[in-house]
Structure formats: structure tokens, C-alpha cells
Amino acid sequence: MVATPDIPRASSAALLSSKPDKRPPNMGQIIRWLLLFIGGVLMIMPIAYMISTSLKWPHEVYNVNLIPEEPTIENYTYVLEDGRFYMWFVNSIIIATITTISNLLFDSLVGYTLCKFRFPGRTIIFIAILSTLMIPTEMLVIPWYLMSQSFGWLDSYWGIMFPGMMTAFGTFLMKQFFESVPDDFIEAARIDGLNELQIWWTVAMPLVKPALAALAIFVFLGNWTAFLWPLIVTNSVDMYTIPVGLSGFGDEADVAWELIMTGAAISTIPTLIVFLIFQRFIIRGVVMAGLKG
Amino acid sequence: MYRNLTIRQKQIVWAWAFLALPVLFYGVIRFYPTGNAILISFQNWNLLGDRTWAGLENYQKLWNDPVFWKVFANTFLYLLIGTPISLILSFVIAYHLDKLRFMHGFLRMLYFLPFMTSAVAMAWVWRWFYQGVPIGLFNNLLASVGISQIEFLNSTTNALPAVLAPAVWAGLGFQVIIFMAGLRAIPTSYYEAAKIDGVGWWTVLTQITLPLLRPTIVFIVVFSSIGFLRIFDHVFNMTTNNPGGPLNATKPLVLMIYDTAFNGFDMGYAAAQTVVLFTILLIVSLIQLRLLRSD
After folding, report:
1. Sequence ranges of the domains in chain A
2. Domains plus CATH for chain B?
3. Gap between the Cα atoms of B28 and B10, Å rounded
4. Can you name the CATH fold of A82-292?
5. Are A264 and B121 inside 8 Å of each other by CB?
6. Segment A80-96, tens digit of pLDDT
7. What is the pLDDT of residues B191-238, one digit of tens each?
8. Buried b / exposed e across B12-31, counting CB within 10 Å, b at 16+?
9. Do B121 and A280 touch (CB under 8 A)?
10. Which residue in B182, B134, B188, B130 sits closest to B154, CA to CA?
11. Which of A57, A109, B20, B140 is deepest in the core (most CB within 10 A)?
12. What is the pTM of this model?
């Protein structure tokens, strides 16, 4: 839906490398650092309060102190023993994983084909897929719902997953990165007698691993947090994904805020951990996708 | 038979073999539903009965529906408040963060972390913040310094900005990262030349940095505009007791579509609303293409 700003001259890796600064810090720099630090701490306050509250006993929940006086994992035990969050968590993992694998395979195969093959119909396919970026999901949910109803896909994993099995965004991201694979490599592999499928899988794919990893993170995160379509297509509690389940859970009468915070933490902590592990890599991926996708 | 083909012909066979399934997917899951949505917008249908031709009836109903105009205004309020605020905040943060080396990565992480959260989870966290005393964090903080309570989500005037705040908060980190990449792409020789000429920082900012950041700014404005026009998760979850309330004060177009289609089962009317949303988003994208092309 969004065209790319053309930012030349520096690769995304170079854009993020920090040059060491030899000059001693002056007063202005110190104030700048302090203000940005305070701003940054404020930014993570909602996350900090969510986690802190999930570790508090009920009598302490409405205190504004960030550090719980007597931390407890009682809320987690309660929420997980209830069984529903466990089920929703598993559903979300399955759905996000399968969708991610599908996107990695198909988006890269289509991107590769559009990038490296010359065949009649190439331009039309290219423009057709590009144009789907203009179509908002919200316009498609009604027809998807009707389709799911007539094929019996309502309230099933496939029903939740099918709209996202391939994405135009991923296809274009991959196409951009396959441009950097030299045609000579592919030609050499052809002479060695590999067929086109083997060339794609064993020659081209290993060369775009960073792009594949970035795509995997985006697709996984997108499906992990997706709300509108799973809300529409599911109607039994055991098919809910984490966001749909959490939304219904929070809305139940008399549910305590510390339990809602615990549910919210369960849905957020996995992505935060992934981020903290792959931080540099994910930020580089965001830049690549933002500028090239 | 395959053996007798030329290399070029073999390539065509492979290409179409690779594309067969994806072409089917895009046709059935993207193009057919798009056409279908437009078709349904000209019909009357409540899911159970027959589909009957309605002509422009749904669009006329929309035009005369005061709730639609309220929703239309809300949707643009989200955009008109959200986009400038997040643009300015993210630029100021990126501009200063770019000039710092000490613990640069750590500060960047603090700003980026909210982008990795789930909108539904954080909507509930913010909803808790907004509750009155003795529950909500904000009102408890206000009470502790002796300021009177603020009605956030129950007030027709405060609810929309209150719902918008977590959406701005969550998107800020992404915009900061994009801005920083844009800033780093500006050749340092420009700044060195400015330094030699003894130009002040304000002139450098307005004459060098901002003009060269134009493509980045256009990208961020359009990206966040589209995001705010499609706002749903935050509104739905912060107002589940009365979706879009109080008195439709927070209801955006996507929530109206959801309500009309899946609570009211008025599929034709809902489809007409999706066509309106599509048209708005298309116009925004076309404006962006124009702005980028005129560079």
C-alpha cells in the first residue's frame, strides 16, 4: 500500500552501525542523553506496569509502586491452570508458525520467479500482485466470511490461516533481495545440471537468509497479534487465538485486573523475548522492510 | 517432450509451474473477494434470506445515516491528531538519538520495544491506566499529587484521544527507526560544508536535513495515516462494554463495518462501508505516489 522512499548510498547495515565518538561529552550532550533516557523509560512504563501488576497480590494491585512488595507467580498459576490461556497460546503458536512457513516458501518462490525468469505474463502477474497491496483486509473480511461459511472453514485453524498464507508485501521484499543474487550463479548451477527448483532452493535461498529471517519475524509477529479476522472467523472458545481470547477474558464480568494483566503479559512476553535476543537483527529487518518492502 | 524444449521454453514451463498455486491464491483469496465486496455493496442481504438487488440504496442510506458521519469524522480525527503528533515526536526523538553514541543501542531499544507488543494486550493495559480511583494508575497518580480526577474513557470528549494514545505509543518506535535510517543516509559532506561555512543548527535543520528527508517523511506520513484510518483493535478492546462508545464518540469506520456485518448481519450495508474505506485508503496512497514522483 505504501511506495518506497528511495534512500540511496548506504546499505541498511551501514545505516545502523554507530561510529565511535572521540570527543569528550559536553553539557549539551549530557542533557540530551538524560532527556532521551527519561523519555525511553516512560515509553516502556506500560509494559513495566503490566508485568509488575501480573506479579502482585490482589491487595497490592492498586498501589502505584512499580516494584511489587511481595512478588508472586500466583496469577500465572491461576491463569494457566484455568487452561484457556494455555489452549489459546498453543493455537496462536500453531497458526503463526504454519503461516510463517507458508510465507517463507511461497513469497520467496514467487519473488524469485518474478525476479529471475523471463516469461509471457510476467508483467501482468507482477502488477496484479502489487495491486493487492492497495486492498485493505477490512474490505475482504465479509467475502472471506461468506467463503468460509460455504466451505465449512468457520471456526477452524485453516479458516484463521487461509487469508495470510501468502502476502504481496513478502513477495516484494523477497523480489528485492533476489535482485542481489548474481545471474552468473544461477547460470553456473544450470550448467552443473541442477533443475530450477534445486537452483532456487540450494543456490538462491541461502543467499537471502537475512531477508528470510526478517520476513519470518514480521509474518510471525503479524499473525501472533492479528485480531480482526480471528475474531470474526472463530466462535468456539477452544479455537480462539491469544488476542481474541484475551479480549473475551477481559470482558468477562468481575474479572480482576491483575488477571487481565497476566493474560496480557502472557501474550506479550514471548515477542519481547524474541526481540531482546535478536534486537540488532530485527531493527535491521525493520529498516530493510520499511525502505525496500 | 520436456527434453525437446529450448532453454527459453523450459524456463516458461518452470515459471508457470512455480506460479500456478500463488496465482490461484491471489485470484481466489484477493481478487474474487474484492469484486464480491463491491457486488454485495449493491445488494440487500441479511445472510439468511435471498440476496436482492438494491442499486445505490446502501450508499444512499450511508449518506443519510448520522452515525456514519459521526464515524467518518472520528476516523479522520484519529488521523488528524495521530499523524502529526507521532510524526513530530518520532522526528524529535530520532534527531537527538542520532547525535548520541553513549548507550545508543539501549536507548533505541527502549523506544522500539512497544512496537513488538500486541495491540489487544496493550489496549487492556491502557484501559486499566484510565480507570477512576482507586483502580486506574493515572487517576491514582493525579490523586496522590492532589489533582482532581479525569474521566478518560467515559467522557465523550476525552475518550477518543485516550484511545488514540496507545496507538501512537505503539507505532512511535517504528517511525523513530525509519527516521534514523533516513538521517544516516544524508551524506556527512553536506554537514561538513555547512560547518565550514559557519551555518547555525536551525539553518542546517531546515535547509539540509528536512529537505533531504522528504521521501522518508512522505513514507511515514502515509504509513501512519493508513494505520490510523484502519484503527480497530485499540478501540474495540478499550470499549468492549459499549463498542465505539460512549455515544459513538470513539467509533471508527472499521468498527462500524464489524458491527454492521457481524452483529447486525446487514451485509450489503457493511460492504458499502468497506468500499468507502477502500476509496479513502486508495486516495491517500495515490497522493503519496504523486508526492514521491514530484521529487
Report:
1. 27-72, 82-292
2. 59-293 (1.10.3720.10)
3. 27
4. MetI-like fold (1.10.3720)
5. yes
6. 888 899 999 999 999 99
7. 888 888 888 888 889 888 999 998 889 889 988 999 999 999 999 999
8. bebbbebbeebbebbeebbe
9. no
10. B130
11. A109
12. 0.90
